[in-house]
Amino acid sequence: MSYNTSSVEKELEIINIPDLEREFEKSMAAAAHEKEADFIVGGAGAEHTLHHNISDFDNWEIVPSVIHGLDESKGNTTSEILGIKLKTPIIVSPSAAHGLVHSSAESGTLKGTFNAGSLMTISTFSNQLLKTIHGSTPAAPWFYQFSFDQNQHLNDFLLNEAVQQGAKAIVVGVFGASFGRRERDIRNHFDFDPDLPFRQLAAFPEYPTGLDILKVNNRKRDINPDEIAKIKKQTGLPVLIKGIQSGEDAIRAIENGADGIWISNTGGRQLDGIRSTIKALPEIAEAVNKRVPIIFDSGIRRGQQVFKALALGADLVAIGRAPLYGLHFGGSKGVTSVLEQLRTELLNTMLLAGVTNIKKLKNNTRLEYAYPGI
């Protein structure tokens, strides 16, 4: 029996992303896809980091400015990264196997992201070829997420294909030598459905289904800093480093040629028990000192959280799970609905806090840290 999933294409009426997540879990369960929902929603270990990524935002409180003659009609959220102009500072993180939630897979996500004036980063573990994804919306800008393999021929194959298909940047993931220990997946005996191969990996002769790479686990166990320069030379593209969680690593990445820093703990999916990304952000922003752009992810569920991350030093924020919820319920239009929902919440927060654009948000916003338990 082939894998059966949603093919609905419609705009969504969303109250908030947490509600949408709960409805997503119910819908996937009704379709006998509880295991797949757990794979998407869940995190590593006891999921402490997954939850702290969200709850630690509450420790930062906004101090609004209310006497300023604000013209709310001038409120806007336009942003930019590496010369790419965006309607919103909210972009889409790389995530595997969009075919788990909708028949349009990554093509639907790219189209929906583009229609929201945003940008998508396509995962190495996509259910569609890069040629197919890019061809679905040729005008859409996109980044390519790349993880080093011990097989250099595979590395070259993936990077060359990303360049050929029009990637605007390479996002190098640095998350450790192994996959996180996700107890939900262990309990569920989760495995990717063979009817949903990782097609770009499957195009490489040594991994005929694309799923084989998960069995051999050939992730490179140590990434040398000079490999940043090698990728830049090979591709001619900007390189961002995703998975930065300390100021020290951010400095090391920049000194070795990184064109951007992506703060991430993969939404709490790798190592449990590490600090939340919002806790790490101020330290990393200080270390980067505006030398390169900072993208922030892990924990974003509301526009108010986007506001706080931008105020603490991020240039863009990225979301991974929420676009999949939108894709499941509404295809490309559902992805657009999710991004628009968060942008609307962000703009509402901006106006109530007394700022009309992202530059003023980053330069003029005051946040106070409220120590937990006080």
How would you sum up this structure, described in words?
The protein has 374 residues and is of the alpha/beta class. The protein has a single domain, classed as Aldolase class I (TIM Barrel, Alpha-Beta Barrel), CATH 3.20.20. Helix 1 runs antiparallel to helix 2, helix 1 packs antiparallel against helix 14 and helix 4 packs parallel to helix 14. The longest helix has 33 residues. The model has no long low-confidence stretch (mean pLDDT 93).
The CATH C-level name is: Alpha Beta
What is the subunit arrangement here? single chain
Question: What count of domains describes the coordinates?
Answer: 1
What value does the average pLDDT take? 93
| C-alpha termini separation | 56 Å
Proportion of residues in β-strands: 5-15%
Secondary-structure element order, as H and E? HHHEEEEHEHEHEHHHHEHEHEHEHHE
Structural class: alpha/beta
What global shape is seen?
globular
Q: For the record, what is the CATH homologous superfamily label?
A: Aldolase class I
Profile the largest sheet: 8 strands, parallel
Gyration radius (Cα, Å) is 20 Å
Main sheet: which strands, in order across? Answer: 4-11-10-9-8-7-6-5
CATH architecture: Alpha-Beta Barrel
> Helix tally?
15
Keywords: Flavoprotein, FMN, Oxidoreductase
GO molecular function: FMN binding; oxidoreductase activity
Pfam families: FMN_dh
Subunit structure: Homotetramer.
Key traits:
374 residues; alpha/beta; eight-stranded parallel beta sheet; two-stranded antiparallel ribbon; globular
Give a short overview:
By secondary structure, the protein is of the alpha/beta class.
